[in-house]
Amino acid sequence: MLNYVWISLIAIGILAAVGNDIKDESANTYRNGQPISIKFEIHAAPTGQSSTWKGDFVVTIDEFNKFYGVNASGSEVRQTVTMNIGELGEGTFFFSTTEGTPARWKEMAKSASARDKLTGGIKSITFSENKKSAVAQVVFEPIRFVKIKAVTQAALDYANTAVEISLGLIGIMALWLGIMKIAEEAGLIKVLTKMLTPLTRRLFPDVPSDHPAIGAMIMNIAANMLGLSNAATPMGLKAMEELNKLNTKLGTATNAMCTFLVINTSGLTLIPATAIAVRAAAGSANPALIIGTAIFGAACATTAGLIAVKILQRLPRFKKDLETANG
Amino acid sequence: MAEFFRSVVNLISILAIPLLIAVFFGWGFAKKVKVYEVFVEGAKDGFNTAVRIIPYLVAMLFAIGIFRASGAMDLLTSMLSPVTNLIGMPSETLPMAMMRPLSGSGSLGIMTELMKVHGPDSFIGILASTMYGSTETTFYVLAVYFGSVNVKNGRHALPAGLIADFFGMLGAVFICRIFFGI
Q1: End position of a domain, from candidates A143, A162, A188
Q2: What ipTM goes with this model?
Q3: Is the Cβ pair A264, B64 closer than 8 Å?
Q4: pLDDT for residue B2
């Protein structure tokens, strides 16, 4: 199953990227080769031998939107730019994108030859009498294969992210595995396990009710409920390790593992802390408003997941994977 | 009411870890467990577990990265929006529902963006944050948990997890429409 979903993600991604790039190319989304007229407000004229002008590119928002066929908001587009202008009024320019750069230019800058920098040529430039400003026709460097480039970059970036996340787990993993080992040796986990036996026997019928896996799973679920994700992951991985000791076919998930994971992926938590924090940051009048609705949503997810996992494990398709274990 | 509940749970989660450590170590010490030796013994596995996850997580995140960067989400949104309109789910929140199981940072970004555009207390803002809180990043959890024990065949865990996500999203739309419906 994971095989198919995995390959689909990659295939859909690559196809969509190619499709989007073909669409952009035929619609000329980035207006390759078409000149846009801008006002150049001069801050510094060249001195001595240099021919470098510094100033601001200004395009009114209406012109910008008309040129690219978008609907950016604001009053004008302004970019601090460096220009090199030759004897004949021909030249080049470049600018780095900033926070206020319109989305379309940011997108273009991402796949430009110099990352996050847009360059282009000046077709014509007419200076005002006092040399304080100028009107110019400029053409950006051609932007092509935006999505394909983005896909390549994402593949590399995410591979790095995966390693960073994994290595970032080492510290808290070691800490919690150490603490859990003490609890285990002291017999604490057994006490905890016994209290919840009626529930766990129903959820995990294949796991002996005094098995250490039960204790680790209970602690993982409790930590998740309290939103202690730093503690929940190590406890969950400890639980997986214990569950794997009962596994007769290593490399294949047992029923108990699947049930446990579905409880984890449905993410039942008493306080959706991240969502509340984002709401508060966005200036909500009542950030905690969503506690009730989120618990309801997660309860729906957990219930549906548990029903699904119990039905699916009976399907011959998934049963078969386990049975070949003894062969 | 919600505020009171929140402060109680907050208090519990702040106290939980120090309390847990105190009880575990205290109990262990009382039971004459050699706490230091046992701790180090257990902690030893931390490194191996973390390193074991790497290939699984690389495989998963790399595929999700390609999917996210390709703009496929926009295509899917426009294909599915007629269906979601029927159940009264604003099409703006559809990318949120589809991204949630795939990527934690991706759905966080979508949620933040929706709140910036529509306001956190608008129906879309409330629905998006409810959706974010209604489920976990299924693909990430599967990669990390199965990876830690070298399980390559996850059997029915993924379909069951996605069914859970689907109903979590439906539940979020349902409850938000009842309480904050337009």
Answers
A1: A143
A2: 0.90
A3: no
A4: 67
